[in-house]
Amino acid sequence: MDRNWRDGELVPDPNDPSYHENQSSDNITINGEPEKPNDTVTFKPITITDNPDSKDKKKWDNGDDIKQGADFDLNAAPTTEITTTDTQNTVEESNQNNEAVTKTTNSKFIPVNKQISSKINLNKLIFVRNAFIYDENGHVVQEDGAYQIKTQGQKVKILDNGRVYTFDGQEYYKIDSGNPDHPYYVRTSSVGNAPKKQAVVMRGTLKKYRINVYSKNGKVIGTWKKANKVKFDKKMYKKGHTYYRIQSTKYWVRSTSVNFVKKQAKTNKNK
Fold first, then answer.
1. CA angle at residue 131 from 130 to 134, to 5 degrees?
2. 185 and 87: one domain?
3. Assigned domain for 16 exists
4. In what order do the strands lie in the sheet with 241-246?
5. How far apart are CA 261 and CA 93, in angstroms?
6. Residue 121 falls within a domain, yes or no?
7. 170 and 124 within one domain
8. Residue 7 lies in a domain
9. For residue 231, what are the domain limits?
10. Distance CA 121, CA 118 (A)
11. d(Cα 18, Cα 42) in Å, to the nearest integer?
12. Do the beta carbons of residue 174 and residue 182 sit within 8 Å?
């Protein structure tokens, strides 16, 4: 299999039949499996009447009161220098007496005196872009002959308190593989904070006759019966998508399903 390297990272040939990227998609899943052409999926239809303000077209189209919220920050988590003389590549496990035992591994990834900033909650980190994962020999992990790729927005479990490792001049974090003796690694530039929900003041028209509505966890929980002019009061980012919450409800819609009223540009009346 041909291997191409770019900026110190292995980039498989897209024409390689084993190349497989698990991109996030809009496809409905059934019991965790992608929807098949012959599957029939029925969701509870949800009807919400048009927002009363939409009857006044001039007021509805006036975007002076709109607060869109800031763009979501999908940058890599910051790191800080740490003081330590421990440069062995080790893994910690328990013996029969439940005592911590540290042993050296043969991984080519070398720990350095740097780790994720202590201000960062390691339990809330996500992949901020689609990313390859690597085994301890620096090879892209494959399953059934396909390269495994973590998709933007997926949660990630960082090991060793966010310790940074280097391999061929690039920086990586050690991540959980399900086997403590053989962890995986991911480029530090691929991991960052999960964006927080934001309060917004937005309004718009749903584009289609029927669109999916989602829970706060990004799961489909129903469909609109018809397009409505509705207001939104919160904004969140989940698994590569931006969602808006229909005001004072538990229902979220994807930004791509809405034609938003835009904030009006201010004009100088003295001209």
1. 160
2. yes
3. no
4. 45-46, 220-224, 212-214, 252-254, 241-246, 229-238, 198-206, 258-260
5. 56
6. yes
7. yes
8. no
9. 35-71+195-260
10. 8
11. 35
12. no
Confidence label for 99 from pLDDT (cuts 50, 70 and 90)? low
Would you say how long the chain is, in residues?
Answer: 271
Find where tokens 């992990």 sit.
Answer: 141
DSSP state of 158: B
112 & 184 share domain: yes
Domain end: 178, 193, 208, which one? 193
The number of distinct structural domains making up the chain is: 2
3-class SS of residue 224: strand
Asked whether the beta carbons of 68 and 245 are under 8 A apart, the reply is no
Q: What is the pTM of this model?
A: 0.67
Model confidence at 101: pLDDT above 90: no
State percent of the chain over pLDDT 90: 46
Structure tokens at 233: 């009061």
- For 227, phi then psi, to 5°, come to -70, 140
**Residue that terminates a domain, selected from 171, 193, 215:** 193
Higher pLDDT, 146 or 40: 146
Helix, strand, or coil (residue 162)? helix
Helices (H), 194-241: none
Residue 219 to residue 250: CA distance in whole angstroms: 12
> Would you give the DSSP letter of residue 141?
P
Q: What is the DSSP letter of 241?
A: E
For residue range 117-148, what is the model confidence (pLDDT) as tens digits? 988 999 989 999 999 999 999 999 998 889 98
Contact 199, 232 (CB under 8 A): no
Residue whose C-alpha is closest to residue 26's, from 178, 271, 243 = 243
> 255 with 222, same domain?
yes
